[in-house]
Every structure is written in structure tokens, then in C-alpha cells.
Queue: 2 jobs
Job 1
Amino acid sequence: MPAGLNRALLTVAGAVIAIVLAIAISSVAITAAGASPLHAFAAFFDFGASERAQSNAIATFLNRAVPLFIAGLAVAVGFRMNLFNIGVEGQYRLAAICAAYVGSTFSAPAPIQITVIIVVAALVGGLYALIPAVMKVTRGVNEVISTIMLNYIAINLSSFLVRGPFAGQRAEGQLTTTTPELPDSAMFPNLNFVFDWFGLLPPTRGGGVWGFLLVAIALGIVIWVVLERTRFGFNVKASGLNGPAALASGVDPKKMIIAAMMLSGGIAGLIGLPEILGDKGAFNSNFTAGLGFLGIAVALLGRNKPVGIAVAALLFAFLDRAQGALQIANVPPSVITIIQGVTVLLVVVANEVTNRLALRLEERRAAQELGTNKVEVAA
Amino acid sequence: MSADTLATAKPAVELEGITKRFPGVVANHDIRITVEPGTVHAIVGENGAGKSTLMKILYGMQKPDEGTIKVNGTEVAFRTPSDAIAVGIGMVHQHFMLADNLTVLENIVLGAEPKKGGMLDTATARKRITELAESHGLRVDPDKLVEDLGVGDRQRVEILKVLYRGARILILDEPTAVLVPQEVEELFQNLRELKAEGLTVIFISHKLDEVLDIADAITVIRRGTTVASLARNEVTSARQLAELMVGSELPTPETRESTVTDRVALQVAHLTMEADGYRPVPKGTSVETYVEKLRADGKRLLLDDVSFEIHEGEILGIAGVEGNGQSELIEAIMGIRAAHGGIALGEQDISTWSTLKRRESGIGYIPEDRHRQGLLLEASLWENRVLGHQTRKPARNGIWVDRRAAKADTERIVKDYDVRTPGVDTLALALSGGNQQKLIVGREMSGAPKFLIAAHPTRGVDVGAQAAIWDHLRNARAAGLAVLLISADLDELIGLSDTIQVIYRGRLVAALDPSDITPERLGGYMTGAIAGTEET
């Protein structure tokens, strides 16, 4: 399909230009911060001196990408129909602590144990997202406002739960509070064996490469299929492209809002699981925060498409990994945030430009192929 | 005309040979209007006749391609509305442009605030507003919040806003469209006072009785050009104006066999819709008494007791000036907007059904605005084929969209309906209006509908596509389809319809036979010049 290919090529070209520009602008920022851009960029590719360090760096990179990818998917499902689920942050934290607690209360064979934990996480995330959906449908409350407010509730609620009802045994001298330890059967097997295939040393830090990566890939494929191939996905697309037309075609906007919000929240519920099931084995007060907000940037960068989101998540994770390396190279690590911010901004602009360009080209191409111009009306 | 002899009688506004083209259409062509100062000058014409474009040109929102505008004898060229305001032209829009959460005073001064030391000088503003309000008889409380005001008050605020900026020439764009009769009378009283103060009012309307009530001079626009300019005393009746508006030559319908059967396909009974939102009928009251009460309370009704039947093989045409309830009628039948009353498809009462269920049971819908309700412009043609048929064959296959079948069926539509496109993967926005519309017609005729709503099916479509769409409608009618045709194009209405009903202010006021219809009668009913009495 040449039309589609054209559009895809334009998109990629736009993204590349945006990233090159982002590097240029970031260089200015780095120079202003008193560091050398060359050192900084070298640090991004500096995966460490020893083989073990390199393996660990790769693991950190992939482990960071997985939750970002899931967060991007969660946000994108809402974005697809112009629904701004800013509440991914709260949804995943609440889901993570509930899932960690429920998982610790029983012990079953690994597949069952893990499945139950995943289902609980998705359910909690989905139900928490149901609140703003119901508010929007019944009372017209803007979901941006309600989800932001619900974030605060969720964040504080989870700090309360981890201290109170869901608190586990705190080890001697431990400062963080945590939920009870998950049984061994809940721990997702890691993917360190892949390193053996390439003759590399397996990573040792942070539980190695988390096996949840596979779940994330499967999730990405499922979401792609749902959005691109099913009737539900078609209704999501139609509602996003033209609400009144979707309504006239028989799509019930209320049902769609509820369904899309719950799906988005359900996916959001899984964001915390890679870390819990792959490394920590519990939800503690040090749990990684901010993934929900980063998910918004990742979804924007990935144009709300699973493949794009995967690329964006990898890019963000690649930049985030360099925290330590940058410090060693004497570059302030906040450079990462600058690069991420500038990239998102430029890519969003580039997307808009290439999108318009692609549409105009399409129009022209159609007119050319038909060999007719628009009918001129004589004055 | 020499300037020195006629210093006092220079026309307030003089438009000479105004022409405005848009891609593919000519909106205004050689418009000539002379507005004398200190008069109320009405500009009448059907919707789509070019009134709005003309007013946008006069208010500097659009530039004419040809022609000159003179204000008080001086030639002007407006680039923006502020240029028009600078020479004393003010516009009162049909849809109010007020900030609800500000007071009347704040709204009036917004954008032209008197300042004292960088702060809003409320005292000066209040003084000027009170002066203006008193001298023109425009009563408003400057400290009230706009959200607490009624429609009539809001309109007065709009007028004050314009006067506050020093306007001496006021353009009122269909000011009575949103008012109830008492408020109209009040507005006219205000306008007469403005006139007595020497201000000039340009009054745009298609309500002829009101025009005759207020105007000193009347210009009629038809199909983008001025067809008549009359002083009030030259006009003898609303019918005379109606005839000028509609045109004196009506097409004669082709002689053809009637395919109307005696089987009722769609029955609409006592359909009523409130203007300020649907409220369910309270328990224990019947719909009739509830509607009766609404009417007694002076509530504005968008649809007022509309009843009709369409038989299989019949095309029922609805004539009427736009904004008299056509859109509401369609959306009520489609289940997009809630209304009181009954709708039955065949034997089945569908009035509580969802839009989806109505579509599934065989209602097709060609919407009046294809870009708003008919198409996903940034999606491919085959995806647009699926739209509205998500739950039906061939687009559906269980939970999946059957892409192959949908594409194949789109190919069929492209072929049968002569949609000119490079392929079914092309985005809908790449097609011309006519081809987009043919695709919609093809889609809505798919899946053997029992009843079709065709709202302006050939609007903005070239002549070739128009003829093709008409043929498709005729063929479908011959095959037993019932069609509700809503159109502003009288050729189309008279040429296609088996029966014509006229809608005016949400009521069906007349049922006419298209084979013996006169322009003055049709125009008279459409504009309310002939009071509504049912006839057959």
C-alpha cells in the first residue's frame, strides 16, 4: 500500500529531524551548564568498563523501558479517543500495592499465583479509572481534573496502606515500610539466560532482566490487535476522529468512555508489576514513582501506536540509564530531563507538521491519479 | 451625486458590485445595497442566499474579491473588524458573544476598558453605560452577572457593547431567532428608539412579518445577488416578498408513476422537543398534557407536535427555511436527541431505542453536514464504509472488523455509485465533496434499509453528482424505500417528493402536492407569511 508507506516514511523522517534538533538544542543547554556536550553524549553510550557492568547496564535499560512502555500504552488508549487519562499515576500505584498485598496473602503454583496478581492489578487500576469515567458520563466532569485529583488520593492512600493495613514485617534496621514479602512462586522468572546465548555475563543487579518484558510485548500485541482490528477499536478510532459522526453512526459515547477509561486504567494497573514481580517482591515506600506521568510523554512521542510507544519507551529508558554515567563524566544528570523534554516537544511539533503534509500529499495524489482538478465555477 | 449638495443625505452604507468567491462557489455576486442613514434597513433572503457572507464583508471579517464599500460617502477597505468598528460599524451576532461569569458592565467594557492608573475605572464605565442605556431605552442592570440574564437582556447587553464602542451603524444578524414574541416586540421598540437617535440599523432576517413590522427599506437577496430593493411602502404583502425570496419560477416535477404503497414505513406522532434541554415527563402526566403545559408556560419548542407518516415507496419532502426544526426532527428520529412523542418503524415502536438499534433495524441516514456527522475525514474510504455498519455484515465478523469484506463492499460502492477515487485505501478527505457524498449515499443504501433520512443530499455537490444522487434516490423509492427528504433546494424537493410538508417554527404548517404548487404559497408557508392551517 504505497499511500500508507508514504505516510510512514514521512513520520519517520519527521521524528529523525526532531531528534537531531533535540540533540542540538540539548548541546546548548549542556554547554550552558558548564559541561561538554561531547562528554555527555559519550556517557550515554558508555555502558561501563567491565563485562558485568555492561550486562547490568543493558538490564537496567530494558527494565526501565518495560514499565514506560506499559504506561505509554495505558495513556494511548485514552488519547486515541481524546480522553486524557492523567490518572495513570494514581491507578498504577494503587494497583501495585493492592496486587502486592493480595499476592502475599496466599501461596499457589507460580502460574496461578502470578496470574492472580496480574488480574488483581488490572482490576484495581480499571476500577479506579472507572470513577472519573462515571463522573464524566453522569455529570460531565472533565476527566483531566478528576484524574489529577484522584492521583493525590491514590498516592496518599497507598502511603497509608503500606504503613497501616497492608504493612508487613519490617526487618531490623530497615527504614522503608513495605508490604509483606511475596512468596517465591510469585516471582517472575528472569530472562538472564538470553545473555548466555550471546556469550555475555548475566546481569546481577536488580534481579537481572525482568521476565515481565515478555508480558509487556504480548500486551503490546494484544492492544494493537484490539485497536486496529476489532469493532471496539474501530469505535475508539471513530470517536477520536469525529465524535458527532461516531454518535450518528450508533456508537454510544457514554459506553465508549467507560470502556476506554477502564481499559486504560486496567493497563495502568500493570505498570508496577515488573518491578514487584521481577525484583522487589513487595511494594515499599521507595517504589518507583512518576511512571504514569512519563507515560504521557511516551504516548505522545509514540503517536499513540504500540510500535511507536515501544520505540519511545526504549529511547526514554536509554536516556534514563545514563544517570550514573553522566555523573561520572561530570555532567549534571538533569540533562536527561532536558533532552527528554525537548525531544517530546519537537516530536509533537514534527508529528503535526508531517501529518498535515501527508494529508496534503494524499489529496494531491488523489487529484493527480484522477487526472481532474476541482471544478471551477465561472463567476 | 455631488458631495457638497447632499452633505446630509449621504448614504450610511453603500455597497457597489460586491462579489465574493470561495473555491468552487460564488457566495456573492454583484451585490448593490444603499442604506440611508437613520433608517432600519432589512436584508432578507433564504439561508444560503449569501446574507452571512455579505455581513462578514461589511464587518471586515472577509475581503470582497470585487466591488467597493462606502461608509458615509467615503470609500473604505476593511482588513479586520476593528477597521469596521473604527468607522462606526458594530455587529450584534446571532449567537451572543458574552462571558457568562462577568457582570454586564465588565462585558460591555471588555476590550475597551477605561483605565485609571492601570486599574479598571468602574465609575467612568458605569456613568457612560448608564447614559447610553438611558438615552436609548436599553434597560439593564450593569452589576448583574450575565449568566443570570435572560435572552432578551443578553441581546440588549450585546447592543450596548456595540454602542459603547461608538457604533452609529448596527448590523443585527437574525436577532429575533432566539427570542420569544414579547421579547421581539421589546427589541423592536429599542430599535425604533435607536433610529430616532439617528442611528442606522441593518437588520438581517428571513421572518417576513417581522421585517415588515420594523423595516423602512428592504433588500432581497437570492442566490448570492440582490434581486430587489424596495421601500417599505412599496411592499404590499409578505407574499410579495416571499415570492421574491424564493424566485418566481418553480420547476415542474417530471410526470412519473407513483410508487407510493399503503404500507406505512415510518410513523411519527406528536413529536415535541424543548429548547432548553430534554426533561422526562413527570410520572402520572400524559405526554399531551405535559406538552400543553410547556406551551402554556411560554417555553420555546424546537419541535411542536410534529406528526406524519411515510409509506413504502414514498418520498416525503420537508420544506422550510433552515433553523425551523429540521435538524431537531432528524436527530429525534435518529435517536441522537431525546424528544417526547412516538416514532414507529413499520409496526415497531422505536422511540426508546438507541441510535445503534435504530440503524440496525433499517434506518439509513444521509446527514446534513457530511463532514460533521457523515465521515471520518482522516480515515480511509473502507473505514468510512464501516462507519454506521460496525455491527452488521459485511463489516462485522464477530468481534472483528472484517477488513476484506469491508474493502470489497467499498469497491462495489465505488463502482455502482461512480465514486471517483484512486482506491479504497485513500483517505476520505482527498475526495471532492461530490464523491464524498456519493460514498455516503452508497453506504446508507447498503444493507437494504427500510427508511432513509436524506438531509440536503446534494448540498455542495457538482451538477453531475447531483443528478446521480437523484437517480439513486428515485430508484430506491421505486424499490420500496421510504425517504424523508429535507432540502433547501426547491428543485430537488419538488422534483423528488411525493408529498411536501412545510415546517415553520417547529410545526408542520402545510401539506402540499408538488404537482400543483405555487411559489407564493410555498414561500408564504415557509416564511410564516401565510398562517399555518393544515390543507391537503
Job 2
Amino acid sequence: MAEMMYRDAVRETIREEMARDESVVVLGEDVVGGMGTAGGPEAIGGIWSTSTGLFEQFGASRVIDTPISESAIVGTAGGLALSGKRPVAELMFADFIGVSLDQLWNQIGKFRYMFGGKTRCPAVIRMAYGGGYNAAAQHSQCVHQILTGMPGLKVVMPSTPEDVRGLLRTAIRGDDPVMFLEHKALYGVSGEVPEGDYTIPFGHARQVTAGEDVTVVATGMMVGVAEAAAERMAEDGIGVDLLDLRTTSPMDEEAILDSVEVTGRLVIVDEAPPRCNLATDIAALVARKAFSSLRAPVEMVTAPHSPVPFALELEQAYLPSDDQVEAAVRKTLDYR
Amino acid sequence: MTDLRAFCMPKWGIEMTEGTLAEWMVGEGDAFKKGDLLCLIETDKITNEVEAEKDGVVERIVVKAGGDAEAVGSLLAVFGDGSADAEAIDSFVAGFKPTSALGSVRKKKPAAQKVADDQPVPPKDASGGEKKPVRIDTNRPISPEALKFAEAEGVDISGIEGSGREGRITLQDVQQAARPARAPQLRGPVDHPEENLEVFASPLARRIASQNGVDLGPVVGTGPRGRIRKADVLKLLEGQSTASDAPFVPVDNRPEIEAFDRVRKVVAKRLTAAKQDIPHFYLRTSVCADPVIALRRHANLVLGSKASLNDFVVMAAARALRRHPEVNVQLHGEEIHRFPHADVSVAVASPNGLMTPIVRQADRLGIGQIAKATRALIDKAEAGRLGYDDLDGGTFTVSNLGMFGIENFDAIINPPQAAILAVGAASRVPVEGEDGAIGFETRISLTLSVDHRAIDGAAGAKFLATFKTLFENPEELFA
Amino acid sequence: MQLSREQLLQAYRRMATIRAFEERLHDVIATGEVAGFTHLYCGQEAVAVGVCEHLDTEDKIVSTHRGHGHCLAKGCDVQGMMKEIWGSTEGLCKGKGGSMHIADVDKGMLGANGIVGAGAPIAVGAALSNKLDGEGRVAIAFSGDGACNQGTTFEAMNMAVVTNAPCIFVFENNHYSEHTGDDYAVGTANDIASRAEAFGMRVWRADGCDFFAVYETMRELLEYVRAGNGPAAVEFDTERFYGHFEGDPQNYRGDGELDRIRKERDCLQIFRQRVSEAGLLETDALDELDKAAHADVEAAVEAARAAPRPTAEDVLTDVYVTY
């Protein structure tokens, strides 16, 4: 086991995959950084440092620095994928799916289906999402709640460096388009990473803490938030079965239902606003398939129905907190 | 005008404030004769049969079986001679008020009621139930059904935080507020097996595998994407060898969960309160049982009774209580109620749980009467037919676990009583005789649990000494 | 003129097939037998064929909603296409795509596209893939005077220039973006090529109704792009004989406009005229090709009518490779 930072896990995994398979190509705005400047290529190396050094190692034909053209970045990735390459494209901020949505939604997500299964589109679109950086309404959002509902796309939300490596390998080696959502507040987080060329299959939740009193489901940064609450409540004898979904499409329905059948109580933590998000989706799932197991109403801990605010205090109030998770868990336990 | 009669929730014993109609044995329109079984009513202590006091016809059943508890005096049904029309019955029901006699025995005065004449009165509330309909004027957003519920049940909505949009109060919110708080039973955190990235298995499958020492490596999953699911592991476990030389494999040992039934709830509540509230102290001694054993054989032969050892314990205790009225007490708030005679409760295990029926005025009964009364109570307890009168009151309890070979134990006091005697098994023990030789005698160990608020240590000790003298010299019992 | 007799016959045969295919669909759609939206390529055949006659399967094309002509020119199977338009499981896309999404990736046809302007970025990707493979292959984005106004097209042109992608932007100006004229909607005074020029590309302009003009322009252009000079663009002036979609009443057309363009601007007639004047092909041979094209199309319609239909179980297949 080695310690590795989340961002380094992203970069090193891409580097390994590029070395392993010549068809892997990286593209995106500033993935080289400094092109056309006095500083020259690699003056920046990607604003998240998730592509530093790749240009030097693999050259301009495989590390393609693009203009700020999100539609063209995603569309180009689609064209590369249809032509047999394995593009790993970066949208600097997930919020920019807004300008590239047609290419994500109508193009790469649908090629295989529209073409009757006669093609594959192994494109990985990486994007930094989430709050916590005071980046305000257009640079702090979650997008999984939008992308998860799009048939044809897979959506991955790793919460640890270990999962980044296992899931990104699966994404790059897989034959379907994958939205790889990296939480920007996790980039600097370190964690143990196993040695070896392991992969983590999609649709396979991770059990973070085990307990038989309440099921808590979370993704991305919310996993850590929920874990803090779970650890605190363990001291009071409250057993939290905390599931990190890892991928929201496909989603590990079985793990959720198995757990709720034991606990009878469910709290879903979602960094997205509360309408039509992952939490409502899971609540509906459990209402349909585990109704008789429920002993209390399903609780959701989500961001409010507002854009992500800028000011420190406002953003803190906006983001779901461990206190909110604890309160929600206790509320389900207090249900009478 | 036909002769309509109200059939109300009866009151059995001083503590009964409400009862639940468990089952009707008669239906609307049925004629019944005096002594016919009308219904079963449950209280927090017992289920009792209610017989007809005179002949009649069921004109209207007001309270259906299986509902909530009804206050004593609530209108349950309307009886008549079968000639009443619906309108007459309706007006009888609407005009029904609990009688003053019933009202007077209530501990609490029924809340003052002001109901407009033209408003039909739900019988439950008219009977003086604690929930009365209120009109709620509020600007707060609330769902129509929630408002209706709150008004009907008299739920104060001011403290409710609405869970709906913009704080709108939902029916669920009001129902929550109306129910008593409940402490959840926690099972707590459990260890979960480290995820093996080589093995693709659901968390539940991993947990079961880990609990059972199953290696998931070779398992072929049947779940989505070939994942190993619970069923795959269980299938594997079924096929595992049970030969004695096989390594021990723990099996699934999760509990089957049974919610408290009514009796269990009451027992749990009472015992918890007793253990927490009563400052218990414990006095231990042992008594020689040989004289009683000898006498019992003789007495049973002569009296034709079948007195058990325990009957002699009850008898000795009752006689000792009469001599020590400071122990023959109940504690009510800050009052000590001292009784002239000993109503001895006998702890009996029944199918419905622990029951403590009472041998009334046991100090005035002979051994044969005590044996007979106790036997009758045990039979009733086993049949689940103990009545309110069998259970209500008591000034002292004898709890005997000797038949299970228990040597000694400490019992929890059964309030409002202030003492309980825990009786262990009789065992043969070597003793030094007066001449220094070793002999054997039969001894029973006793623990008296005493409520220190009502009974001083010395008083308890004196009582126990008297008991010991009587028990070891049983001829005195017949003096 | 460098075309052999065989090449000329093949080019005409392809144009005639497109024409027959679209005319037949026009009739059939009016009866309600074919579902969905269909956009016919009639009138523009010389562009698709004049471009694609230069390509092999490793050169990619990305098409538009008006894509039948590009598909047929790139070698897609007539029956497979017709069955797709009929929604059969034997269609090129198993009935999942329909008229607007016909694709045959093995033939280098990366799909018609229901979103106007969406194809250009995809073509850039295909071009970069070809560039990476280093064998001089290109990718072609077909766009019209509608798509030329989409931001994606601009992004793609800039991206192609920046990345030096062997990508060719073929603008077919048929003068109507849906129901709006290019006089109104194309802000650069009807001139689409100048936009590509502004992005730094070398551009060509030619008459899209003259197969020979298209063919010759593309020969020159492809030579330039295959040599590694980066992207290029071309604007072909062409005509749309039918409406935006089938059922379009075309109230926006001028008096006698359709008759005039059919008479003066029919690329098949122009082809016949040119080869006759030059004594390259006899009318009889061309008539034979017309007949053969009609027979092919008729056989395709019969086959499509008889082809197996999908079932409800097929809805969930091919969403993912694995899920």
C-alpha cells in the first residue's frame, strides 16, 4: 500500500493507461497548459495537476491541448472514440456540461444505440465538480443528477484515491462513454492505494462503515461527510451502514435494498439540490422495492434548491454537513 | 319511546382508567340473555369477559373491537328491546353523557366540555376521554387531513415543525406529535470485512461470507454483472460439510425480532420503573425446611390438601406480616398505606408473561385454603384468564424459583408493594449437630427485597426473623 | 478530365440510386407507410457523390439530418438503409436509428445526425484519429447553410485549425435552413466559405450541381489535406428539390422556383448533358443505369416491407456494451 493524493491517482492512472494502450488519447483545455505562451508547453500542466507531464511523455498527438470549446472537446472525443481511439477528455469544470450538453447527451451517449449496437464509444469525459472552494454558482455544481438520467452514459463519482485508480482503469478500458466526476475538494486528499493493476467494476457500492440501525447512502465528497457522522454516532451505539455508491449509473440497487431490508431506515446524502436528484431517485427505488422493510420515512440530506452561493458562510450553509447527516439519522431513529 | 340503555366501559379496580374493546361476542341486532358473554375488554393488566346483567338486544355498537383504548364510562354500545329506530338510537348516542357516579370515581376530573348543541358529539369525547376535539384557527400551512386529525385528537400544533414545503404541516407530522416518544432499539455498528478488490461481491454477501468463514474467491456470482450476491453465499453454506472433523463454521445467528405485546410492555414498564425508582435493599438468610417437609406430608394426608412447600412459605409470610404491619404496606406517593391483613401476591409464570395473582387475606387462611386458592390462581394464569380482581392490589409478594434449582436470587419489588421475598431451592446441606456430629438438613435460602423508603432495615430484619421462626416451627402456624 | 468510363458509370449510378431512393421515399411517405421525420437529399446528389468518390472506408464522413445521399455515396447498403427507414431489425441500425441516424461505421460513415451542427466536432475527432494513425486519411463534416450558423461548427473549425486536423468542412448551401433563406440567415452575405477562411483555413468554392466541378474541387482539396496541411473547407452551391422534411408545404418557395431548379439545376441532367456533349457516355447506357437504380430501390422497398420487425425486448439492447 502506498499513500497517494486523489489528483495524483487520476494523473498516474492516465499515465499508466496511456503507456499500456496506444489508443488512449488525452484532450482538454489546458491539459498541457501554456501552449502558445512565452512559458511554452507544460507551463501549467493542467489546472488540477491531473495531466502534468503527460505531454512531455506522450507528445502533442496524444495529449491534445484544446481551445476553450467544450462542445468541440466532447464532440472530438466522440469522433475519436467512434474511430477506435480511447479518448480521455477533460472538462475543466463540470458546470461546463451546459455548453457541451448536446455532444454529451445527444451524441456520445446515443451513438451505440442509434447505430443499432454496431459501434462502441469508449470516451471518458473527466470533470471537476462540487462545492467547497467558494467558486460560486457556475463553478461549484454537481452534475451527476443531470447525467445519471441519460441512458447510454455511465456516471462515476470516486470518493478515494484507491477508488479513483480502480474506477478510472475500468472507465478507460471499458467500451462505453463514461462521465468521470472528480470532486475538486477531494483532489488534495491522500489515501492508501493498493499496489497492482486492480480495477473496480461499475455498479458496485463500497461499504464504508457497517451497522444495522440505519442505511446511509452517499457519493463523492458526501461519503466523507457521512462517514464523520457515522463514526460519531457509533460512539452512541448507533450502527450506520454507510454505502458509497461509487457509480450512479449503473447504480448498485442491490446493495441499497439489501441494507434497507436489514435496517429499515434510510438516509440519502446528496450534494445536489433536492429536486430530481440522486436522493429522490434512491428514495423512489426504496419506496418501490423495500416498502415493507421501512420503519421510518426516508430522509434526504441535500443542498437546498438554490444555486451554489459564493460567500464563505453561504456556501457552508449550502453544503450538506455531518451535523445534518447525524440529525437525519437520529430523526429516522426517533420516528414513532 | 323505547327503553334504550347505555353499555359503557366498566371500571375494575381503583387504578383502571381506560380499557380496550378486544372483541365483541354479540353483534348489532343480536338478542342476549342475562349471563351471556357480551365482549372481551383488555386493560393494561388483564383481559376480562363482560357478561350481560340482564336480557336485551344490541341496538347499536358504538365502539368497534380492536380500536384505541376508551376511557372508563365511555359509551360502547346501546342496548334496548330491539324496537328502536335508527333515529332514536342516533339521538340517544348524541345525547349520551357519562353518569355522575362514573365521573366521581375518576381520579381526574373530566376536562370541562363545551360542545354546541347542534354539533354531533363523537362518543369517545363525550365520555370524558382525555382527547377532546378543539377548533384550531391557524395561519400556518397545514394539510386538510392533518388539521382534521389535530382537531379531532386535540393535538397542539404550535410545537410541530412542518416537514412539507414551506413548513406545511402534514398528517404524518401531526400523527408523530400525537404519539409518545419511543427509544429505538439499537443494534450498533458491526465490523465489516475489508473489501477484496479481486472479488466482486455485494456488501451483504461479503458480510455473510466473513461471518461464516467462506472464501468468496472461487464463487461464481449470479448477480448483475456477475456479482456475488447473498443467495450465492447462502447456497454455498447449505452445501458445506457438517462432519465433526470439519472446522467449526458459525451459522447465521441474527435474532428473530418480536415486538413487545401488551403484557410485555406493561411488565417492562413496571419493572423498569420499580428497579429505577425504588431504593431496594436486600436481606438474606436461609431457613431449615425439614420441619415443614415433615408437617406437609402429615398435613396433606390429614387435610386432603395438596399444599406445596411454597404454600407454607406464603402462609408463614402472611402470618409474619400480620405480626409486622410495618412491612405489610403499600407506598403511594408520599403516603404509606398499612394494611391489617396480608394480601400475598404469588409470582406465576403464565403464557402471557409474569403475573402476580393475589391470595387475599392469606393470614386468615389455613394451609389447605391457601393451597386451594393458589392452585386456582395458577390454573387461571395458565389459561390466561386471570381477572382484574385477581391482580389488583396485594401487600407483599412471594417469588419462588426453587423448582428450577435456583439457589438464591434477588427479586424486584412489585409496586405499590414495598417488599418481595425471593425463595430459592431446598438443598441438603451438612450441619454441625448440637453434639458436634455432622448431620444433614434441608435448607432454603431467602432474599427479602425491601423498599427502603417505606420500610426500615430493622423492620425488615425483624419480619424475616419472625418468618424464619414460624417456618422452622410450623406447628406455630396452626396455633 | 481524369475519370475513366467505369468511374463515370459508377458515379452516375450512385447519383441515380440516390435520386431513385429519395423519389421513392417521397411517394411512400405521402401514403403514411413510413413513420417519423424524413429529409430528402434530392437535388444535391452531385455533392455527396462528387466528394465520396474520392474516399475509401478509412476516410470518415459525418453527415446531417439530410443524410441518405451521403450514406449511399459512402457505400451503405441500399436494402440495409431502406430496412432501417422502415424500422426493421435488419436495418443498418436494427431499427433503432431511422432515417436521421443511419450509420455504418465499418464503411467510414459515422452517422447522420438529427442535431443541426452537431457533426462537425465529431468529424474533428475522427480526423485526429486518422492523423494519429498517420496514413493520410481524412474526415469530412457535411454541413449546410443551417449548420454553418451553429457554434459547434465554429468551435470545430477552430479546433481543427489549432490541432492541424485533416478535417474537411463541406458546406452544401441549398439556400434553405429549414424554412429560412440564406439571404436572411447567413450573415456573411450568403458566403459560408469565408467563415472557414476566417478561421485560417484554405477554402474552395464550386457549383454543387455540377458533378465534375465537385469532383475536381475535391481532388485538389483532398490532395492538399492529405499532404498534412491541416483542415480545409469548401462551399458548394446546390439545390434542394423537396421541402425541409417530407410534408413540408414549401410555402416559402418563389413562383415557379421548383420548376426552374428542376429544369436548370438538376445535377443528373447536367451530368448527362456534360457526358453527352463530350461523347463520354451514351444516353442508352445512362438510361440503363437509371432503370437498374429504380429496380434496386424497388427491390429494397419490397425487402423492407417484408423484413422482420423488432419486439419490445429489443428496446433495452445496445444501450451499452456492458452495464
